[in-house]
Amino acid sequence: MPTPRSLTGRTIVVTGASDGIGRIAARTLAERGAEVLVVGRSPEKTAAAASEIGGRAFVADFASFDDVRRVADELRDSVDHIDVLLNNAGGTFDPSKRTADGHEPNVQINHLSPFLLTHLLLDRLGGSAGSRIVNTSSVGNLGGRIDLQDMAYDRSSPAEFRAYCTSKLMNIGFTRGATERWSDRGITSVAVHPGAVRSNFGNANVLFRVIYRTPLKYVASISAESGAEPLVSVAVDKPDAEVAGIYYSRHKARGRTNGQVDDPAVVDGLWRESEKLVGLA
After folding, report:
1. Is 164 noted as a catalytic residue in this protein?
2. H-helix or E-strand containing 193?
3. Catalytic position from the list 164, 212, 247, 248
């Protein structure tokens, strides 16, 4: 195997880095020399993850836009340039438990908050040094459906799995929209399905608990170490031309996607509605 390229001098932000594949990815990137800024929800777990790799800890709950704005300010104050923003925070959540901002939690935590954070960090991304945005998506995108008239399920109550799948479809739509809008600023964007990972993901969902917390997990899922590999690969090991606007299913480029993200009207509508919902428009 070739020796991995050194990342010395590069600054990488990893959200959802206090546990699971995010923590493994942050550790791998730090071992290769990157300065890693670890973002997580739990103060204790985030501090432990940052200490483990010699990184810096930043705490935010993506169920609150105010928290996202605060952590964005803290990140901006800490660095002059971000080489990679790995939007990995997320999970699957009970749709009946609305966020602090009143939205369906899968859509807010998995899509709207990363969308907002990325916009708030724009002045630290791109430029002559270039930057890459990595959005952790899922094969579950195939089961999603973006309704531009009720994008955050503010007027309806979806099933949890449907809401999760829709949020993962939005991650791909965001990736394509960012590529269209920001490539001339030196920013590339890529989405990736890491695989069905054995972690704390989906603890609140009965179906996921059956799969991930019984012997079935060894048949239906992979290790966190394996799940982190494609995240690191698309973040730092591939040229821009191989990732810009692309959805990877683990290491395979152009994985299967719901046809909605092939429709420019849906991608543009998703962008405009997201701007409204997070207060950018």
Report:
1. yes
2. strand 187-193
3. 164
